User: Fold Two-component system nitrogen regulation response regulator NtrX from Roseospira goensis.
Amino acid sequence: MPHDILIVDDESDIRMAVAGVLEDEGHTCREATDSDSALQAIAERRPNLVVLDIWLEGSRLDGLELLDHVLRDYPTLPVLMISGHGTIETAVAAIKKGAYDFIEKPFKTDRLLLMVDRAVEAARLKQENAELRIRIGAHSELVGESPPISQLRGAISKVAPTGSRVLITGPAGTGKEVLARQIHARSRRAEQPFVVVNCAAMHPDRMELELFGTETGVDGYDSPRKVGMFEQANGGTLLLDEIADMPLETQGKLVRVLQEQTFEHVGGTRRVHVDVRVIATSHRDLQDEIQQHRFREDLYYRLAVVPLRVPSLVERRGDIPLLARFFMDAAARSAGIPPRPLGEDAMAALQAYDWPGNVRQLRNVIDWLLIMAPGEPREAIRADMLPSEISALTPDTLRLEKSPEIMTLPLREAREMFERDYLLAQVTRFGGNVSRTAEFVGMERSALHRKLKSLGVAGGAAAAAAASGGDAGQAAPASAEPGLVHGGARGSAS
Ligand SMILES: Nc1ncnc2c1ncn2[C@@H]1O[C@H](COP(=O)(O)OP(=O)(O)OP(=O)(O)O)[C@@H](O)[C@H]1O
Assistant:
């Protein structure tokens, strides 16, 4: 993996020797002769590593003082010191200050290369760990086998290696960030940083500061300079989460950055070059935002090189059992307790519910159930243990809700009503998959198909079956059907 390396040494033969060895390995090297030109080079573009001589003749700051500056302003930038004969003690002091390691002159080529690779790798792991700690509990696995998720998986494998910009839209909590992480993980940038900017959570006045960083300290010359998210993501991917919340003025600046891959620090004049892949997400309809003059059309077309849409969870009910089991196992692992199985009736209710908060809400419910559901540790979770707005959707309850109406009907019509509601609930529960429903209710597939048709539920149902992962073209619950599938709890979820 080639690195961008800054070599700081007052002796030109040492600089040339180090650069020669590193460039032969494919690394890109820049050279600086003193502290000021070194700081300027870092400000222009943050390197992956600084190789720094302890003695810097004729420099404003010596090697150790420069190290202090670099570590203060760029705490995650690794520094490898070069020490001469008799400076070992100073080199040890440098490590105590925070340098990665030191290499003694004269050095062997192999040793230099090894240390360079180790220093960059250690810094990468440190950053990755920090990121993981922040995002603890966030899964980046894309679970689901429904047609829309399979299509998205196919699109990810095509687009990930290309480096194209991607715009991911879809309702909140559907997995847009999961998709973005997948794209990064399968790209050539996978070893480089993945930086997330949450435009919705950030104060609009701070956004440019956070994105582009500052030339000097934010609050005055002596405070550390702020490294913006674009620089932090150099070589990797920057996720602009909820891009519709970005102020129009910042959108204009972003257009220029995307066009030129360069920008200026806030309060600065120098152009900073970066190599960043941008992925953006939005739960809003950006075309609508453009119409309302809240989103720049030129930015839309620069971001939506590859547009992807993640459907809501109700559009792929067939994925609910997989997701529920996945979250149960994950929650149990992180709590260090055994997972609770989900009973048939509980799963049926989970599949019948509308999930306004999408996958995130399902995950929260499962986390809650593992800890709060009554019963023994390995006892199956029943429908009556679910939160009330979800347990209201079990076939039993729904049948009771219907009973007053049933009592006014003759037997044949009452049986038909029950049959229709019962079969709709079962088809919904199996994500519109008629074969699996038939197996469960104990009917031949073709007989069930005929039955659904005779009960008048085959028409609009086919589309629902296709959307929710069932056998496309087969019957599934019509979304407009006011029967027992959605019950009285629709929209009552928190
Ligand atoms: N297909 C999936 N497989 C596994 N986990 C998922 C999936 N989709 C979403 N999740 C999980 O659901 C939660 C919400 O996902 P994510 O943050 O990616 O959604 P989002 O669409 O970006 O939400 P928002 O619009 O609110 O930012 C996360 O915990 C994520 O791990």
Summary: The first helix runs from residue 12 to 24. The two ends are 47 Å apart (CA to CA). The domain at 4-134 is CATH 3.40.50.2300 (Rossmann fold).
